[in-house]
Amino acid sequence: MDAERFTRLSLVEIDPAHDGILIEPAYATANNVTGRAIYRNAVCCLRPEACDALLRAAALARPIGYGILIFDAFRPQKAQEILWAFNPDPAQVADPATGSNHTRGIAVDLTLVDAATGRPLDMGTGFDAFCKESYHASTAVSAEAQANRFLLLGLMTAAGWNHIESEWWHYQLPGADWPLLSDDSAPAPMM
Fold first, then answer.
1. Does residue 167 have an active-site annotation?
2. 120: which DSSP letter?
3. Considering the domain 11-181 in this protein, what is its CATH number?
């Protein structure tokens, strides 16, 4: 990879105790599509602008009885390369040659939880289920899952995020001028 393509930037670590957002970084465990841990540390980091937008979404969810659970945020380039090697389908995983919005620090994979119990809402499929049922507007999932997806979509959109059609869990900040970040941008080593 061309070193000039990457920018060193300090990212903001999501702190569950301070931010009121739950984290279960899927790639820090074997509980992900690859079946193995990719990250060394269970941290979730974002650019400051993305962190602010995430906190806005959490503030919108809280009064109506919901919370946010993050599966992934900033993703080091090396991790993007591992995911691409596992599933080299540009409809589901960004080609590391062009870069992922996760590697830019402006994308987050998440779901909603019931604030009282901490249990994730039914979204019809799991995180990283690369299938037609994972599309935001899929009618192949239950009416409850469809409603939960649209609730998540409404909260995230109101907080300034964009979505991609094929993954109900993926949101990103708008704009195309975000540079890729170096793997050492996160506060704690992730790889």
1. yes
2. B
3. 3.30.1380.10
